[in-house]
Amino acid sequence: MLDTCEQLTDTQLDAVFPGTHGSIRVTLKHMLGAEENYAASSMGSFPTTPPLLEDEGASRSFAELRERARSTSSAMIAFTEQVTPEQLQVIQLLFEGIYRAPLLVTVIQFIDHGIDHRSQICTTLTQLSIQPPSLDVWAYNEAALKCG
User: Fold this and answer.
1) What does the pLDDT look like over 104-123, one tens digit per residue?
2) Taking the CA of residue 132 as centre, how many other CA atoms within 13 Å lie in the half-sphere pointing to its CB?
3) Annotated binding-site members for a divalent metal cation
4) Which of 35, 10, 31, 4 shows the shortest CA–CA distance to 20?
5) Using CA atoms, how far apart are residues 94 and 26, in angstroms rounded to an integer?
6) pTM summary value
7) What is the DSSP string of 79-148?
8) What family is reported (predicted)?
C-alpha cells in the first residue's frame, strides 16, 4: 500500500471521496497511528516514539511511515506469538479508562481497523483511476514468503 501511495502526486494524496475516512495522506497517518496505539495498549508500551497520533500536525515521509509500520507490525507479531490464551482474556481499561475490553478485542481491533482503512484507500485509488495493490491474506503470504 505504501509503495503505491508513495508514487502519487500531492493532489492525489489529498483527494477526498465520499465513503472514505478522508484523503489518503490523512487516512494513512490515522491508520498507522491507531495501529501504534493498539500495539501500545496490547503490549504496555509504544513500539515507536513519538506516537503518530500524538503528533498529528507533523508531516511524515513515506520512508518514515514505512519504518514505523514495519516496527509496529513486527512488535505485534512477536507479541501475539508469545501471549497466552489466559492473557488474551485479561480486561483492559482503554480510552483513558472509559472502555473495558479483553486484550483479545484490542488485538483484533489492530487488524480490523487497518483492513477498513486500507479498503478506503483502495476506494480512493480506484476513484483516481489507479489500480490498487492486492491486500488480501494471500498477497500478504506471498510477500512474506519472498522476504523469507
Assistant:
1) 999 999 999 999 999 999 99
2) 17
3) 30, 113, 117
4) 31
5) 24
6) 0.86
7) HHHH--HHHHTSEEEETTTTEEEEHHHHHHHHHHHHHHHHHHHHHHHHHTT-PPPP-SHHHHHHHHHHH-
8) Belongs to the DinB family.
At 47, the pLDDT band (50, 70, 90 cuts) reads low
Q: What is the total count of domains within the chain?
A: 1
> For residue 36, what are the domain limits?
2-147
CATH of the domain at 68: 1.20.120.450
Q: Is the pLDDT of residue 135 over 80?
A: yes
* Contact present, 89 and 104 (Cβ < 8 Å): yes
What phi and psi values does residue 90 have, to the nearest 5 degrees? -65, 130
Q: Residues annotated in the binding site, as ranges?
A: 30, 113, 117
What are 91's strand-pairing partners? 102
- CA 81, CA 78: separation in Å to the nearest integer? 5
Peptide bond into 50 cis (omega under 30): yes
